[in-house]
């Protein structure tokens, strides 16, 4: 599969989400990514649903990568990995700060051997400082950085009070994407200087950087009844003429956006209604205002006609769909928004497609997700090892794996083993 990053080699030490997403994005763009997995596998292999040791979660985050499984505690094993890193352009890792230094695989060690190496580490709070050693997962980082607070502020206490946050790992995903951006910037700088560099990515800092209302939160400003003209704070829900649930992008309360609904309804008289004359009163009478607008919306013959009138008033709307429903739309089929990938055992997985189209590069479909150790022989043969050296590495326990049989590697067994690895290594 060609792509803008064709010819670059990436060594991926990472686990679960933030690091794997960064490395998979590089693979999507055409880089050759080699994932290094220990005998006790990445915990995400044990996620459900699971088929013969391959989970959909793992497949989504690691498709397109080659995989070697190596026991770094076996005598001579680290030299095998060093040989890969000597030829690498990029290294990605997301262990707790300092973990790989104990294996001699930290940036200082690798860059002495390979000065052009770009090395990125993703942790919760960075490599130095008072929080460097803390465990970090997306929900805890989101709680520490104001994300969860903002989410809870907009939950209805009666129906949503039991939820702490939404189910998506925003801190991991954004950190992985920001790490990718930083890697590409460092690669551009390498073209100028001929030198690589180290990149320290803190999930907490990432969550600050992507917070569109940070200027308000840092200043301690509470906008009260008056929502901002931008943002998703209100996003009222409505029902369309055919029973479709949808969200409108503009607040019905805000002083800058309420007039747009009046223009769409041809009801400028409502601006004089005492219940709706100010943002504070509109908030106090929210149910009544919502009912007026909802009744008007139900008067249309179909959602398409309603959408056209909302569009005329500069009000965007989006139908509330499941991801499976989106995949059935003409847009998803035209864009190629969903890929079906198949592993070497015939397991099939539906995952998201690419978020970009390039005029000069055809990315094609993603390569299949690899089983643990599936490319041991291929990768090290390319690295210059002879067949006898590879066979000796397998016989002595340096190289491990290949596709496990269901009896050898059940999801529950994989989860127990991976959890043990996590406890030993301090993995994110």
Automatic annotation (TrEMBL):
Its EC number is 2.8.3.-. It is an enzyme of class 2 (transferase). Keywords: Plasmid, Transferase. One of its GO terms (molecular function) is CoA-transferase activity. The keyword Transferase applies. It holds the Pfam family CoA_transf_3. SUPFAM superfamilies: CoA-transferase family III (CaiB/BaiF) (SSF89796). InterPro entries: CoA-transferase_III_domain, CoA-Trfase_fam_III, CoA-Trfase_III_dom3_sf, CoA-Trfase_III_dom_1_sf. This is CoA transferase. It comes from Paraburkholderia caribensis.
